[in-house]
Amino acid sequence: MPEISNDKTTAHAYPPKEIYNAWGEHAEELNMSISQYIIRMVESGRKNINMEDSSSDTLRELLQQRATLSRQVERQRDRIKDLERQLEQTSQSEIASFVTENPGVQTPVIIQHVADTVPGRVAGHLDALEGSLIERRDSGYYPINADERSEMSQSAPDKIQ
Questions:
Q1: Rg for the chain (alpha carbons), in Å?
Q2: Domain-wise residue ranges, the chain
Q3: What is the pLDDT, as a whole number, of residue 154?
Q4: Are 62 and 55 in contact (CB under 8 A)?
Q5: 39 near 2, Cβ under 8 Å?
Q6: SS3 131
Q7: 87: Cβ–Cβ under 8 A, 6 or more apart, which residues?
Q8: Which single residue of 98, 106, 134, 138 has CA 20 to 30 Å from 151?
Q9: pLDDT at residue 32, as a whole number
Q10: What was the pLDDT predicted at 20?
Q11: How far apart, in whole angstroms, are the C-alpha atoms of residue 153 and residue 135?
Q12: Is the separation of the CB atoms in 160 and 79 below 8 Å?
């Protein structure tokens, strides 16, 4: 670290009084003058931060990543809303169609009809979920864990899961 020498130039800084006092206290703890302290702190900072590498590139990259992730999150939210809407409409439209075909039908008959038609609807739901939340293997369905879903979304970032 450079020391105060006979060949010196004046530099001015105008820190708030609290900061200057904190510098002074720290300088005393290190047994050095405030001038020596400021020189050492500035030089230490210069060695740890390369202003040539400028964080603007890093900041720009982070902002781009954030924008990309925000778009992906928004697409996922839209997809979830769409799937929820489809699920709701499927169940509701099934009941509405049955009531239209059978005016005056009573609740127990509607419940039985819904129960009888579940297998057909479940197959469609399984097809929609397979690959995004569940996978088929060994003649059964298994949840895709978060790590596998993350790997799948990273390998196909533009594919909506």
A1: 33
A2: 17-48, 56-129
A3: 54
A4: no
A5: yes
A6: coil
A7: 125
A8: 138
A9: 87
A10: 92
A11: 15
A12: yes
Selection from 154, 86, 88, 94 nearest residue 119 by Cα: 94
CA distance 91 to 86: 9
Mean pLDDT per 10-residue run, the chain (161 residues)?
Answer: 69 90 91 88 75 64 89 90 76 84 92 83 80 86 72 50 40
Looking up tokens 């127990």 gives 108
Q: What is the pLDDT of residue 40?
A: 86
Angle between helices 34-48 and 17-29 (to 10 degrees): 90
| Coil/strand/helix, residue 89 | helix
CB within 8 Å of 110: residues ≥ 6 apart: 95, 98, 99
Contact 13, 23 (CB under 8 A): no
Q: Say what the pLDDT of residue 21 is.
A: 93
- Confidence at residue 150, expressed as pLDDT on a 0 to 100 scale: 55
Give the span between the Cα atoms of 9 and 29, in whole angstroms: 26
Q: 3-state class of 11 per DSSP?
A: coil
Cα separation, 160 vs 79, in Å, equals: 8
Q: What is the DSSP letter of 2?
A: P
